[in-house]
């Protein structure tokens, strides 16, 4: 990790890390982080699988991370956006 990334992300987490360690064991915190990362990874794999399956069926479904994050658009076909209610 670069120094720029460290100062932007990890250094800002130090106060939180200290508070968490006062309440929970390091093992429990590590397990929770692994669980969240695992859920994120599994969700991403499912979305990629869906996109590939639909494209294989001949539907030109598109995806882009910026559209997902900024516009909350999961996918689109031509000018039609697909998004789920949360």
Structure description:
Helix content is 69%, strand content 7%. The chain contains three helices and two strands, in the order αααββ. A hairpin with a 2-residue loop joins strand 1 and strand 2. The mean pLDDT is 88.
Keywords summarizing the entry:
7% strand, 86 residues, two-stranded antiparallel sheet, 3 helices
In short:
The chain is mainly alpha-helical and about 90 residues long. The protein has helices at about 5-25, 25-55, 65-70, and strands at about 75, 80.
State the end-to-end distance: 33 Å
Average pLDDT:
88
Approximately how much beta-strand content do the residues carry?
Answer: 5-15%
**What radius of gyration results from the CA coordinates?**
18 Å
Trace the largest sheet across and list its strands.
Answer: 1-2
The profile of the biggest β sheet is:
2 strands, antiparallel
Task: Count up the domains.
Answer: 1
* Coarse morphology: elongated
Helix content: 55-70%
Pick out the low-confidence regions: none
Backbone structural class: mainly alpha
Secondary structure: number of strands? 2
Number of helices: 3
